[in-house]
Specification:
370 residues, alpha/beta, 5-stranded mixed beta sheet, binds 5'-O-[(R)-(carboxyoxy)(hydroxy)phosphoryl]adenosine, binds zinc ion
């Protein structure tokens, strides 16, 4: 079963070919980061227009890299939500046209579910990993979402907690702006934190009692306060209050910071303050729900500090009985291999969409008790 996957929910135009939900034959991602960098975040109209020029060359590149012709595809899978409406429309229209032309089934995939299923994928030329055992707890942390999910079987999810304000990736992105580190913020903060002392600045953690919810907006304000003494001028707009780019053509001005600003220590303290509540609540949930595996997913799963701390804490508190998995780096941030992979399991349940299918910009992960 060869599935062509297409992903255009945000700012990556991606296509991939995956065999039977696991073996990745090709995974092509055309990043638009350079186009959005000047604005400090994704500009929806620019994203949609970049997708429309990139989509067919990216699909062709995925077929070429897989070494197959169009007619060998058994099904076409596409992200139908959640995401930016204009961006989703480009992928869904392309997928409809390809599936129609080839007379093959079309599968609509939930982007959040796909991030979870990235854990089933293997790298090209590597054997597939053993499938994670159920029940499992998944920490899904990306630019738009931070959720703790209990998965009891294929397609069966229960929400345990979510962020009450910013997503973890969004917190990294906003923190990076405050530190003048550029976009996307996660990798930039991680790199800056590498030589830093995480204990030098006391930054708050929002524990929110016994819940499995998260909150990062207070941390962002605390970082703003910690950086304030090092800001040279207040002439530039306050990046902490800017909720993404203000308009399609308003450029983001990085703050001017003094040369002696301890960016490494601030970044390390900030990263640790994000990672700690994520790790503590995930380990607690795994224990409480008898999880046999814990999965990381989403762009923030690329973060080394998060991966290493979670793996170590699970081992310490729950022992060898709980398997820990995080996707290969290439499948953490947005990609189409995870879309094609998810579609395989959906097709096995008989799920496919019709020609009249719409996009679902705010589609939550469908919760079906299992
Ligand atoms: O999953 P993703 O590619 O897109 C969404 O669905 O949102 O996640 C992108 C997010 C961005 O906020 C980015 O800053 C964050 O993932 N990210 C990271 C790292 N790499 C990407 N955050 C922390 N550390 C990283 N190494
Ligand atoms: Zn994503």
């Amino acid at each position: 079963m060869l599935i062509l996957g297409i992903e255009t929910s945000c700012d990556e135009t991606a296509a991939a070919v995956v065999v039977a939900g696991q073996r990745v034959r090709s995974n092509v991602v055309a990043s638009q980061i350079a186009r959005h960098q000047a604005y400090g975040g994704v500009v929806p109209e620019l994203a949609a227009r970049s997708h429309i020029t990139a989509i067919l060359p990216v699909v062709q590149a995925a077929l070429d890299e897989a070494g197959i012709g169009r007619r060998e595809i058994d099904a076409v899978a596409v992200t139908t939500g959640p995401g930016l409406a204009g961006s989703l429309l480009v992928g869904v229209n392309a997928a409809k046209a390809i599936a129609y032309g080839l007379d093959k089934p079309l599968v609509g995939v939930n982007h959040l579910e796909a991030h979870i299923y990235a854990n089933w994928l293997s790298q090209p030329n590597e054997p597939p990993p053993p499938p994670p055992p159920f029940p499992l707890v998944c920490l899904l942390v990306s630019g738009g979402h931070s959720e703790l999910i209990l998965m009891t079987g294929h397609g069966h999810y229960r929400h345990l907690g979510r962020t009450l304000d910013d997503a973890a990736g969004e917190a990294f992105d906003k923190g990076a702006r405050l530190l003048g580190l550029g976009y996307p913020g996660g990798p930039a903060v991680e790199a800056a934190a590498a030589g830093g002392d995480p204990g030098r600045f006391e930054l708050p953690r929002a524990w929110l009692g016994d819940t499995y919810d998260f909150s990062f907006s207070g941390l962002k304000t605390a970082l703003l306060r910690a950086v304030a003494p090092y800001r040279l001028s207040d002439a530039s707009p306050d990046p902490a209050t800017a909720n993404g780019p203000a308009g399609p053509f308003r450029e983001h001005t990085p703050p001017r910071l003094a040369a002696e600003t301890p960016v490494g220590d601030l970044a390390a303290g900030f990263q640790t303050a994000i990672v700690e509540p994520l790790v503590v609540k995930t380990v607690r949930a795994a224990g409480a729900f008898g999880a046999r595996a814990v999965l990381l997913a989403g762009g923030v799963a690329a973060n080394r500090a998060l991966r290493d701390t979670l793996a170590a804490r699970l081992q310490e508190e729950l022992g060898e009985g709980v398997a820990f998995r995080s996707p290969p780096f290439a499948y953490c941030t947005d990609n189409a291999a995870m879309i094609a992979g998810t579609a395989y399991w959906a097709l096995r349940r008989g799920t496919q969409i019709g020609w009249e299918a719409d996009v679902h910009p705010r589609w939550p992960l469908v919760v079906t008790p299992g």
